[in-house]
């Protein structure tokens, strides 16, 4: 068999790896040419996709058995059962198999082809083909076996283009961020004079859907710093010690890319009160405390922002001075912010005659997610009428107001729970800003 033909077919298989008939044809030629080690890899890939492929199974058996040229009296192109008894007049009919081994050797009759399963020397085959046959089983997530050690974690390092100018409203929130993070960074001489360190943590809390994650990205963009966002799924692992190592790798990555904003989303799940946790999760909280202190490496230039909907569930040790020592309430968007959010979600839709100020006034206490859903609902109204009448019409003011009457603000349930905390669990005064807002809103 010409090596040039095999090389051409190999190139064709590399170009079309999912073409199983082509791969089987190449494996057949490799077996016939006495190159069983190469044929095994192709047959294995076919069996990985089609475990019941009989042709691939036969090729695998032939490739794993003794080399084909060892039996000069057996016709190579026919199935093994077609010539049960070889005739001494037939050696001239085997030109397709180059004589890789001399037929004079008397050893082959003692080991018939194909070899019986009970007579296979698996240890020898493993040593011979271990680097050719891919492993039959592998971890579904593609990670290395944890028993053999972890590879170094790689976290996505972002460079946010969003700034605080892109955040509508929230004047008090921006002022607090300026004092906590942005001011010291922009004024290094004043920072040195007042002994202000470029380290610290800020806990953002409030009802869901009010833009805490967006605000964290805006802070990173305003500072020109790297941004790393972490959720609980990036940390927790079923193997003992792996979750703690994931946390350490995360902080090491942030230190290596300083200045960096490290955003810990849903911190109440990762840093829950240890008195309410099992022992395995307590060690994760302990590791988080250690990393926030920067015991193993300085945290200068690492700004930790954490977000939660339930700050009362966060372990008290995480909120002591030097860790997440500053708390910022992120409330539902005010009037100008609601108008900006509505304008953003209507920007790429066909609209006509919409008074954003009026709609914003009708959606007090709505979160950003509620406003996005309102625009979706208004678009559904206009699309439904267009389908019913056959005439396409724009989204108008009546659609927006009808959607506002249908959708209720999702923040009401959160404020009902927060009211109990602000009234009966505010001994240290950490929820005074929440209590003031509830008094102004007259939530009873």
Q: What would your notes on this structure say?
A:
This protein is α/β, with parallel strands linked by helices and 444 residues long. The protein has four domains: 1-65 and 113-134; 164-329, Rossmann fold (3-Layer(aba) Sandwich), CATH 3.40.50.300; 335-408, Helicase, Ruva Protein, domain 3 (Orthogonal Bundle); 412-441, no CATH class. Helix content is 45%, strand content 6%. The chain has a five-stranded parallel sheet with strand order 2-3-4-1-5, sandwiched between helices. The chain is extended, with a radius of gyration of 35 Å. The chain starts with a helix and ends with a helix. Mean pLDDT is 77; it is low at 67-100, 102-117, 133-141 and 144-152.
Q: What does the largest sheet look like? A: 5 strands, parallel
CATH topology of the largest domain: Rossmann fold
From the alpha carbons, calculate the radius of gyration and give it in angstroms: 35 Å
- Give the overall average pLDDT: 77
Spatial order of the strands forming the largest sheet: 2-3-4-1-5
Work out the strand percent.
5-15%
Shape: extended
Give me the secondary-structure category.
alpha/beta
Order of helices and strands: HHHHHHHEHEHEHHEEHHHHHH
What's the architecture of the largest domain in CATH terms? 3-Layer(aba) Sandwich
Tally of domains: 4
The percent range for helix content is 40-55%
Let me know the number of strands. Answer: 5
Regions with little confidence, pLDDT below 50 for 5+ residues: 67-100, 102-117, 133-141, 144-152
Number of helices: 17
In CATH, what is the homologous superfamily of the largest domain?
P-loop containing nucleotide triphosphate hydrolases
N-end to C-end Cα span: 89 Å
């Amino acid at each position: 068999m010409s090596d040039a033909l095999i090389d051409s077919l190999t190139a064709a298989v590399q170009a079309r790896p999912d073409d199983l008939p082509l791969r089987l044809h190449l494996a057949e030629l490799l077996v016939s040419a006495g190159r069983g080690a190469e044929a095994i890899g192709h047959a294995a890939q076919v069996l990985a996709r089609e475990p019941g492929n009989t042709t691939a199974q036969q090729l695998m058996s032939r490739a794993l058995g003794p080399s084909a040229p060892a039996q000069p009296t057996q016709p190579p192109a026919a199935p093994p059962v077609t010539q049960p008894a070889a005739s001494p007049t037939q050696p001239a009919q085997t030109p397709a198999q180059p004589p890789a081994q001399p037929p004079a050797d008397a050893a082959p009759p003692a080991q018939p082809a194909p070899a019986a399963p009970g007579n296979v020397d698996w240890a020898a085959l493993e040593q011979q083909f271990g680097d050719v046959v891919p492993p039959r089983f592998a971890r579904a997530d593609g990670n290395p076996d944890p028993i053999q050690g972890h590879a170094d974690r790689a976290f996505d390092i972002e460079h946010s283009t969003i700034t605080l100018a892109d955040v509508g409203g929230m004047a008090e929130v921006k002022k607090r961020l300026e004092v906590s993070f942005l001011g010291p960074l922009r004024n290094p001489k004043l920072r040195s004079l007042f002994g202000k360190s470029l380290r610290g943590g800020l806990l953002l809390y409030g009802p869901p859907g009010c833009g805490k994650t967006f605000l964290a990205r805006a802070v990173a963009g305003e500072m020109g710093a790297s941004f790393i966002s972490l959720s609980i799924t990036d940390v927790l692992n079923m193997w003992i010690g792996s979750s703690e190592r994931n946390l350490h790798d995360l902080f090491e990555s942030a230190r290596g890319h300083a200045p960096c904003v490290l955003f810990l989303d849903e911190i109440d799940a990762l840093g829950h009160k240890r008195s309410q946790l099992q022992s395995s999760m307590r060690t994760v909280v302990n590791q988080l405390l250690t990393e926030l202190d920067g015991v193993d490496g300085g945290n200068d230039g690492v700004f930790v922002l954490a977000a939660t909907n339930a700050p009362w569930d966060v372990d008290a040790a995480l909120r002591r001075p030097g860790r997440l020592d500053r708390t910022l309430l992120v409330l539902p968007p005010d009037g100008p912010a609601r108008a900006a959010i509505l304008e953003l979600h209507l920007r790429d839709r066909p609209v006509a005659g919409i008074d954003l100020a009026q709609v914003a006034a009708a959606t007090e206490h709505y979160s950003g997610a509620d406003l996005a859903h309102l625009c979706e609902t208004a678009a559904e109204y206009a699309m439904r009428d267009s389908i019913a009448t056959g005439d396409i019409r724009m989204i108008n003011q009546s659609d927006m107001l009808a959607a506002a009457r249908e959708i209720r603000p999702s923040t009401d349930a959160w404020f009902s729970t927060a009211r109990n905390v602000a009234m009966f669990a505010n001994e240290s005064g950490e929820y005074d800003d929440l209590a003031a807002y509830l008094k102004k809103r007259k939530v009873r």
